[in-house]
Amino acid sequence: MRALVLDYSLSKLAEREVMAPPDPLEHEVRFRVLEAGICGTDRALSRFDIGYPPHGESTLVLGHEALGQVEQAGSASGFTAGDCVVPMVRRPCPEPCPRCARGRWDLCATGQYTERGIMGAHGYFADVAVDDARYLIRVPAAIRGVAVLVEPMSVVEKAIGAALRAHEEEPRTAIVIGCGPIGLLAALALKARNLNVIVTSLEEETNPRAAVARQAGLEYTRQSPPPADLVFEATGAPEAGFQAVRLLAPCGVAVILGAMNGAGTFPFRDLILGNRKVIGAVNAPRQSFEDAIRDLQRMDRRVLSSFIERRPRGEVFASLSANPPQAVKLVHVLDA
Ligand code: BGC
């Protein structure tokens, strides 16, 4: 089958013929990959900044935001041919540690976990994939057109849950820094929870992402907004991480989702005297995928669709080098 692979021995990204996965066992499912989304992680992978191939191999199949359709379901899998599925990304550590053992591999403390399409396990930018049914989420046919957003939305759901739990009062205001897919999905999800949300980012007012944010009914500004109860950093830039902390109201919670390490002034004293909290969040458990589906179902379909630009499979090389792209979410159609 064809797959998009990172070749670590040649430091090269290529579309190649690879071995198709074996037939599914009784608790497994084989699905055709219909679509794969591209995110900042894929761009970092394609620059060989992060990630690694499975043990003993020199190539990694890319792709971790996928939508599939079941072709063959093992008798004990609970799935049926034709079901739409979204795979979870992370797989538990081999032992497994207590958190992995209770299904919270998103919290794995050993670091021995793998992530499909990112760290030590092949991803989904390929014709078909096989997974254990416990890593698959069934998607209602009604949201098929936006279901490729379920994985990034699951990350947002986990982050919002963590922020709400960490905030000791009832938060009313939120700032989202960044208007990429994670930022805009977070802003929509916060708005759906009746928070007053401001999106701030560097994009010019005329940038299509800023326009999409406004069309989604979100307040967008390039200026620094007033402090808020919850602040989400969704840019990847360390400056935005420091900005998130500076924008915290007393008792506020900042969630860092993408910022790389960077040097700057960290206001420890303001944290202490204002009971402010800074937390990080990565990946997502099954519950967050279920929450993502519930939220996507109740959101305006036209708004969600306006986030997505679909492209043919072969254009993925251009998508990975566009940094950042104009579209909120680039999605490649694999089964055309
Ligand atoms: C994915 C997460 C993953 C993280 C770190 C993100 O792009 O959405 O599932 O845990 O990268 O590898």
Gist of the model:
This protein is 26% helix and 29% strand.
Q: How confident is the prediction overall: mean pLDDT?
A: 97
The backbone outline, from C-alpha atoms, is globular
Helical region count?
10
Largest beta sheet, briefly?
Answer: 7 strands, mixed
Number of strands: 19
Radius of gyration: 20 Å
SS-based structural class? alpha/beta
Ligands and ions found:
beta-D-glucopyranose
Q: What is the distance, rounded to the nearest whole angstrom, between the alpha carbons of the first and last residues?
A: 14 Å
Strand-residue fraction? 25-35%
Order of helices and strands: EEEHEEEEHEEEEHEHEHEEHEHEHHEHE
* Low-confidence residue ranges: none
User: Helicity level, as a percent range?
Assistant: 25-40%
Features:
single chain; alpha/beta; binds beta-D-glucopyranose; 10 helices; six-stranded parallel beta sheet; seven-stranded mixed beta sheet
